[in-house]
Amino acid sequence: MFEFFSVKETLTATMILFAVIDIVGSIPIIVGLKKKFGKIEAERATIVAGILMIAFLFIGNNILKLIGVDVNSFAIAGAFVIFIIAIEMILGIEIQKNAESKSASIVPIAFPLIAGAGTLTTTLSLRAEYHDINIIAGIILNTIFVYLVLKSANWLENKLGDGTLQVLQKVFGIILLAISIKLFTANFAQLFSTYVKF
């Protein structure tokens, strides 16, 4: 397996996953979640997200086939989740209630924020072009960076004022909304072309 290791492939896979995960763009969400839940379990969120991505790389297609769901339908479901998070950010409302939870770790940080439908489907598409070892290395590098961002939540909260955070939250909310719409339309078009024959 290690004989196929390539620095170039690893860097490419890392950059693609970095763009899809967009943890830097998620900073306003992370700070908002920290305020909402009181604390973020960075280690737990990072480990779960990393395991989800690596596991999905190998058994993603099999799992989806087992439950009778195709990748496009899975991505559309993820688009709806991202859409709801975006609406919450833009309008400043609370759609999903988490009164009993004392921390944000697995949901919504590990899934769908880090290892969301977009990220998981991207890992599957990367497998068609790159060797597994390079994709795994890319996932590990991204999870390390994610961990550093999550651990810096307190510092980020102090450095960024409430006004700046509110502006950033709305801006990134609109970006997330655009991503959700793009994810929906692209995968809906695929489903439409697959099931509707002229």
Poorly predicted sequence stretches spanning 5 or more consecutive residues: none
Distance between the termini: 45 Å
Instruction: Please summarize the sheet with the most strands.
Output: none
Label the overall shape. Answer: globular
Structural class assignment: mainly alpha
Strand fraction: under 5%
User: What's the number of extended β-strand segments?
Assistant: 0
Number of helices: 9
Mean pLDDT: 82
Order of helices and strands: HHHHHHHHH
Question: How helical, in percent, are the residues?
Answer: over 70%
State Rg: 17 Å
What does this structure look like?
Helices cover 77% and strands 0% of the residues. It is mostly helical and 198 residues long. α1 runs antiparallel to α6 and α4 runs antiparallel to α9. The longest helix is centred in the last third of the chain and has 34 residues. The model has no long low-confidence stretch (mean pLDDT 82).
Give the topology:
Layout: H1 7-21, H2 27-37, H3 42-66, H4 71-91, H5 106-114, H6 117-126, H7 132-151, H8 153-159, H9 162-195
Helix pairs in contact: 1-6, 1-7, 2-8, 2-9, 3-5, 3-6, 3-7, 4-9
Defining key terms:
198 residues; mainly alpha; 9 helices; 0% strand
Brief digest:
This protein has about 200 residues and is mainly α. The protein contains nine helices and no strands. The termini are far apart.
